[in-house]
Amino acid sequence: MSRTLARVWNEPLLLGTGLSRMLDELFSDFSHVGFDIAPSFGQTDVYEQNQNLVFETELPGMKKEDIAIKVEDDQLCISGEMKRNEEVSEENYFRMGRRYGRFQRSFPLPSNVIDKDTITAGFEDGIVKVSVPLKESLKEREKAIEIKVE
Fold first, then answer.
1. Residue 85: inside a domain, yes or no?
2. 46: CATH
3. Is residue 144, in this structure, part of any structural domain at all?
4. What DSSP line would sit under the chain, residue for residue?
């Protein structure tokens, strides 16, 4: 027991790194079946503006050439790869808290998209912004459901 305790105290900054990476790898398998569990990359806001459905996804530290955006099976897919600085060897790190590796985020698109060829995307300051033109506002199609008290 004392050997284990001593090792933990010698490497306190490395303690959570392995567990964190292991959980990320476990949950990454769920992205292929439509689950979005604890994404490491790509926190996304989705909103409607000027009859466009807008997706703003945070991708700090990414380069435009490492990001791919496509529409597949009525889903908007944003994917890419965050590459680690290879100039620093892994054994020189005290803690590796940033995320590296491949990611993919998928979002279902509504049926009233004008034309998939008119979707536009831009990338600035670590945020990719995708605009999807709509035939009609999603807000106008909303219908409130009355809740009855019994």
1. yes
2. 2.60.40.790
3. no
4. -HHHHHHHHHSGGGHHHHHHHHHHHHHHGGGGGT---S-SS--EEEEEETTEEEEEEE-TT--GGGEEEEEETTEEEEEEEEPP-TTS-GGG-S---S--EEEEEEEEPPTTBS-GGG-EEEEETTEEEEEEEBSS-HHHH----PPPP-
- Using alpha carbons, select from 141, 128, 148, 144 the residue that is nearest to residue 66: 128
Domain count of the chain? 1
14, part of any domain: yes
Does the reported pTM lie above 0.85?
no
Taking CA 57 as the corner, what is the angle to CA 55 and CA 63, rounded to the nearest 5 degrees?
130
Note down the domain range covering 113: 2-34+42-136
pLDDT per position as a tens digit, 43-59:
899 999 998 999 999 99
Strands of the sheet containing 120-124, edge to edge, are 44-49, 52-58, 127-133, 120-124
Please give the radius of gyration of the chain, using alpha carbons only, rounded to the nearest integer: 21
Residue 143 lies in a domain: no
